Amino acid sequence: MESKVFDDIYEKAKSVVDATAKKTSDMVEISKLKIEAAKVERAISSRYEELGSNVYLMKKGDDYDEELVNYICTEIDELKDTLAELKGIIADKRNMVICPECGAKNAKGSIFCSKCGDKLTKEAETTCEACVKETVAEEVKEDTTSENNE
What we know:
The protein is mainly alpha-helical. It has helices spanning 2-60, 66-93, 129-149; strands spanning 96-98, 105-107.
């Protein structure tokens, strides 16, 4: 009888430790993703500054280079997509869903957004976490390289 009680206590304690370890692991992963998201946000800000500076210089010199402006805008769009994917992964790890209309966080399983009332839909394709991390690492590396060259 005593053996069964101790076994039950051991199993419950083990279960609590496992749950705590998983929660800690999730928190560490969320922190890493938040750091990556902050890097992408800085890269976006840097691209906006670059865009503004180039447009100003072009206007002052009456030398508008549409190809350069389009290139920078494309970079900004790609970075915004990456940021949205990162935010989606973070929300998923927190059991939340981000409204595609207003960006509000909603509990997973919600059908409508609690802020704007728009219908929340599950995206058809799932985001590959490793792919996002690889893309972010490449973009941040490119951003750092271009900033160092300036």
